Automatic annotation (TrEMBL):
Species: Candidatus Giovannonibacteria bacterium RIFCSPLOWO2_12_FULL_44_15
TM ranges: 6-25, 37-57, 63-83, 90-112, 118-135, 147-166, 178-199, 220-238, 253-272, 284-301
Keywords per UniProt: Membrane, Transmembrane, Transmembrane helix
Taxonomy, superkingdom: Bacteria
Protein name: EamA domain-containing protein
Amino acid sequence: MSWISFAVFGYFLGAISVLGDKIILKKILPHPSSYAFWQGILSLGAVIFIPFGFSLIPTEKIFVSFLAGAFWLYGLFFFFTALRKADASNVLPVVLSLTAILIFMMEAVFLGHQFSRTDLLAGVLLVCGSVALSLEHRWGHRRKIRGFIIPAVATAFLFAFSTFLMKYLFGTESFFNVFIWSRGGLFLAGLSFVLSPDFRSEIVAGSKSLKRPRASTSVVINKIFGASGALSIFFAISRGPAALVNALQGLEYAFLFAIGALLSLWVPTLINESLSPKAIMQKIFGMIMVSLGLFVLYFYGK
């Protein structure tokens, strides 16, 4: 399987996980700090991959691994914060497009990656498709935009830094070793939330919700989907250009829209996806752009 196949599969699992995140933030853990905290704690589940390749690495690489994991978790916190202020269809275009641009710049400048014209064309198609898939046809009040734009931009920077550091580590260490060490960073970043009295009270409140077996089981299952998707995507990053892997994230929203549309018909109280003719045409246009980008990558890419 090529890195593209792993990326596609990872974003499919990621779409399921994002839907789970929406439901969990709505029904179980409404505070971003509480949900981010439990994301960090549950990341220790990565120890199951120790038999596949784990070893001590130099101290500086341990630091970089922890930093990559911490950036990712703090990015999730800001992403959840943005979702509290606006719909995912408003937040995602900012995060997707800015993250892709930042990673492209960092790979080109710091890692010296040479992108072919074909890669650049595919990247442009994928990013444009991502924006079309995730951009809402009406953005609402300007105050609403100002409310989510800062955490959305912070999310993009943190995700980009994390992905870049992981790509750097994959160039010198084995995949599973880097993945396991980086989860340590997520865990420590999760623990850091208890240092704030406000966050600590929110975490305690969330913990009471998790005492219900159905709630805690839902969070764990969703984390399994999310972790499996992240594992597949990071494996794709270890094998291909991180900028192009990230550009493929438009597929996640395509999957998200398709699954969300079905759930909107079956369980509208949980997911309410816009199914207006204008919204559907916009999504179809985005899917066509992403499909063209995939076609170029598969048949004409490096």
